[in-house]
Design goal:
By secondary structure, this protein is mostly helical. The protein is built from 12 helices and no strands.
Length: 389
């Protein structure tokens, strides 16, 4: 059967993101809980954190941008050789990092650092040419690349603090993307779903609130650069949590419980105010139960939003109806359980930390196995209408 994998940007990168999620987390969990050796020369913690951000998350970002930019600019979609080359570059980076004990450090870093500039070059010209309002996303890609570059410098110098700060900065940039893009699509898709069900409810999205919310998320990122872990960082996180919660409250999420493809976006966005509030509790009051606030933001907000967007985009752009397979809904529930266990599982005495890691990883892995079971055939198959997509 002829594959349609390289006919549109979301196809290879959503598949790659799913495979990365399926393989990276259990490998890390086995290393942490069982002491299984990894083929990378990097410290296992830094390998795990880097690959989740610059492997998994950046693959999903690439798939989204390579799909959205043609829609935003009215240009032909990215396909064929350029898409093959981009996919190969991303995959080569994962392989080299995963086996970095066998390769020169400079080679591994150079290949890994080539991906985001290549992505920016591919999508940049149509954005700039059309003077599209989304052109500032190129700056976000550059800043993400800068975080990755600083991370590699931290590894080279054996400077854990520098590497950790670079990763936190990268996570904050990804959270800004969730704030901007999630803040557009969540109320829009919710309003559409409620209209289709003839639900009499107004989904508000006050424009005046958007710059305030985004500005506070930028402030969170900036303060984490200069004073991470400080009381000031906790105070700004609290302000951001309050405004994010107020923004989310406008979107009628409680009315979407019959529409999993919509409520998953609300669930993902809800982890932004939750994670930021936990961060403030940890930094301002030293609350032990809030210690894993970072995973509320990474698994909760980032990974859940990614899963929600990938499942929706993959159906819509292959000509399928937005009707979810039962395994997809199960994937949503498993991932939601994974973040709850990871963030709160160690708060009481009923679960040890190693058990929390193993249980959360098992739930995560099952979620993305369910995703791939349903969506790998969709991503590989032609559009149902017969058009290229």
């Amino acid at each position: 059967m002829q594959t349609s994998l390289f006919t549109y940007g979301f196809r290879p990168f959503f598949l790659g993101a799913g495979l990365a999620a399926l393989l990276l987390v259990p490998a890390w969990a086995a290393s942490f809980t069982l002491g299984w050796p990894l083929a990378t020369a990097w410290p296992p913690m830094w390998w795990h954190a880097h690959e989740m951000l610059f492997g998994f998350v950046c693959a999903a970002i690439a798939g989204f941008l390579l799909t959205s930019v043609p829609s935003w600019t009215g240009q032909k979609g990215f396909a064929g050789r350029p898409l093959v080359a981009m996919t190969a570059l991303w995959l080569l980076g994962r392989v080299l990092i995963g086996s970095s004990a066998s390769w020169p450090f400079v080679l591994v870093a150079a290949v890994d650092l080539a991906f985001l500039p290549a992505l920016g070059a591919l999508i940049g010209w149509p954005l700039v040419r059309e003077r599209n309002r989304n052109t500032p996303l190129l700056l976000v890609l550059f800043l993400l690349w800068s975080c990755n570059a600083v991370f590699h410098v931290g590894l080279w110098r054996d400077d854990p603090a520098l590497a950790r700060h670079a990763l936190l900065a990268g996570v904050n940039l990804a959270l800004i993307l969730v704030t901007v893009i999630g803040g557009r699509i969540t109320p829009s898709f919710t309003a559409t779903a409620l209209r289709q069900r003839s639900v009499d409810a107004t989904v508000r999205s006050r424009r005046a609130m958007t710059p305030v919310v985004v500005g506070l998320m930028v402030a969170v990122a900036a303060i984490d650069l200069v004073r991470p872990g400080s009381a000031l960082a906790g105070a700004v996180a609290l302000a951001a949590a309050a405004t994010q919660a107020a923004r989310l409250a406008q979107w009628q999420g409680h009315r979407t419980l019959r529409d999993p493809i919509v409520w998953i976006l609300h669930a993902a966005y809800a982890w932004l105010p939750i994670g930021l509030a936990l961060k403030s509790l940890a930094l301002l009051a030293g609350v032990a139960a809030a210690a894993f606030w970072l995973h509320a933001l990474t698994i909760g907000a980032l990974a859940t939003m990614i899963l929600g967007v990938m499942t929706r985009v993959s159906l819509g752009h292959t000509g399928r109806t937005l009707k979810l397979h039962r395994l997809t809904v199960l994937a949503y529930l498993l991932l939601s359980a994974s973040v709850l266990v990871r963030v709160f599982g160690a708060a009481g005495s009923w679960l040890g930390y190693t058990t929390v890691i193993a249980a959360s990883a098992a739930l995560w892995t099952a979620a993305f196995a369910a995703f791939l079971w349903v969506y790998a055939p969709i991503l590989l198959a032609p559009r149902v209408t017969g058009r290229s997509s």
